Fold this protein.
Amino acid sequence: MHYRRRYFLQGMAATTITLGACGLADQAPKFEFARAIDPKTLEKPKLVVGFVPVNDCAPFAIAWQKGLFYKYGLDVILSREASWANARDGLIFGRLDAAPVVVGTITNARLGAEGARPIPLCAAMTIHRHGNGITMGRPLWQGGLRPLQEYQGNLEQFGRELRQYFAQHQQQVWGVVLSAAVYEYLLRYILAVAGIDPRKQARIIINPPPQMVNGLRIGSMQGYMVAEPWNTRAISDQVSFTFAQGREIWRGHPDRVLGVTQAFLEQNPKTYRSLVKAMIEACRYCSDPQNRPEVARLITEPAFTGARVPGLAIDTLTRPGIVGEYNYGGFDGQTRLENQLETTLFFDLPADLKDDPADHSTFLWHSQGIWLMTQAARWGQVREFPRDAEAIVKQSWRSDLYRDIAAELGIDCPREDYKLEPAGRFFDQRGFDPGDPIGYLKSFNY
């Protein structure tokens, strides 16, 4: 089988990207699995699958290197995309067959959020949960801000200090990787809890992940929310600290889903099943604590994140988010290291996050899709919360298909599509009942 890589070469400062093309290594990897599916039985065994150079490319790297794509009859070209907008647009315009996309993209594409033409995208699984964070530049530290966990739940104090900073610095530019998606929603959420109206008091811009660090360095933005390793990179470069991991804002939130168009799914149902099987196995591999150091090293390859620091261990930037040895940074000489596997959840969930005994990270909850649509309505990206929200999320998040595929792999799944999000899952102790999205929306000041 012929496996290829198309990728961009990054500058050492992760600020410039140059187009290039070659293989991941001098030789094709030695596959660990035999064929389980004959490619001739698939409608389209040769696929172009996109990814973005952040830690959550890990399952794709593993599926390629270990031969999981090969096992399920697929010949996959992994296309290294410059940004999440590129990955999304690659699906929409047919350049990519499949790609991980930021959670919120699928439902908002169907809604035609922000005035876009509605596009029927679908996903049957998440790629991972968590694995991201909000980074704040050095000036915020100098202004008195500290990592969220150091406030010990005192949100009044946090809000007061952030409002004071905003009052003293009128130009507020904050970066996210994509509009109308979970990163923007979590950033807006935390600003709103602090008593800041993000529609009026902050300018939120879209930046590709590798360019975020330089934005802080040159002062063109005050902070951003991005996936690892680009929070850790900013700490390594001593230009920021991590204010909060995304899991501290909404514990258990999905981050990426495996997106395709509805047309692709309908025309290539066997192919998509094979792709989902390969990715489920890859996510399980990444989830195993014994495998995580290997995974962290693999994704430092230039074909994936290219995130390396000369003179330091090869996995200095990728290891914290994958293995869980997470450093929040700071400018006072203190160590803020937290060892926690749930820094990124690829498959297995902590016991207290399993709302159903059969729950696992790659299962898509429709109720969480409803939450995303409340945020689209909250911030004016759609005119109102859609009356047919349940139908939209059912078309978008194919948990029915996932259950069927997982069953063939011997994996149990929750039987329900909806669950409550307990108050303790959100940092402001405000739970979410998917049965009353309008009441939830009315509970916010803005």
The domain at 132-249+308-334 is CATH 3.40.190.10 (D-Maltodextrin-Binding Protein; domain 2).
